[in-house]
Structure formats: C-alpha cells, structure tokens
Amino acid sequence: MTSVVLAHVEEIGDSAFYHCTGMMSLDLGDSITKIEEDAFYGCSSLENLYIPDSLKTLETRSGHLGPFLECTGLKTISIGGLEKIECGMFRTGSRVLEKLTIRSSVKIIGISAFNSSSGYRTERVSGDYSDEAANGYAWTSASGSTQLVIEEG
Q: What's the Cα-to-Cα distance from 1 to each of 6, 31, 96, rounded to whole Å?
C-alpha cells in the first residue's frame, strides 16, 4: 500500500497504521476530527503530511509523543486546523524534512514539539502564536536548512 485516502473518515484509532512502512502518501480528507496516539507510528516512508482544518486536536500519550512518532521520511509537514502543537507532537526523527508550514490557527507550540528532527532551520517569522518553550526549545535537536513558514490569516 503506497497511497492511503481517508476521504470520509472522521476518526483514526490508536495504532491503526502502526509501522505501515509502505505508505508514502496520506490524504486525511476534510472529515477527519480525531487521530489517536500512535495512529501512524513508524510509517517511515510517509513523505508529506497535511493536517486539515477539520482536525483541531491530536491524541497524545501523557501530553507528548503524538500519532506521527518515528515517521522518519517526512519531507513536508503542513499544519492546518490545530490550535496547539503539544510537547513532542511531531517528534518524527525525520532526516529529510524540507518544509514545515504552521497556519495561524496554531496558538501554542509546546516544548520539544519538533524534537529530534534534523533539517530544520529555526527562524522567527510573524504569526499569532505563542512558543511556550523557553529559548526556542520547541525546536530541540533541530538543525539544517528546512524552510519554516508560519502563515498569517
């Protein structure tokens, strides 16, 4: 399975696609409202992730380590409807991340939200969000030349 389209799915359960290493493409659709923890754990071939406006929260284990843990192949992440990016939420371990887009709906970015991903270039751009991590720890262990975009609107 290289492509997964979830056009009319509202919820994805815990570990639903656990270690689905052949999945390269994921379309969450516009109906998704809930993704439980570890839903896509270890989907190492997944390259692009778009979080649609319909998804307001992601389930996390003890407030950290979200559904996309160890998705090491992610090249682009675009975060739409989320209001808060929890601690460790996108701790993907990605070594190839090229672009991270955070839409204006995001108001809080938690400590180590993007921990252990190389390729990020940390830059502060305008946007109505709060980095609750002192001294930029939302980007812990992040280095490299990834484009970070925080959209207004």
A: 13, 22, 22
- Tens of pLDDT, residue by residue over 80-132, are 888 888 777 777 766 677 777 887 777 777 777 776 555 544 333 334 444 44
Give per-residue pLDDT as tens, 132-153: 433 355 555 444 445 555 555 5
- Asked if 104 and 81 touch (Cβ cutoff 8 Å), the reply is no
In the chain, the N- to C-terminal Cα span, in Å, equals: 36
Which of left, alpha, beta for 95 (phi over 0: left; psi -120 to 50: alpha)? Answer: alpha
Backbone phi and psi for residue 134, each to the nearest 5 degrees, phi listed first: -60, 140
Selection from 129, 63, 57 nearest residue 100 by Cα:
129
Amino acid, res. 59: E
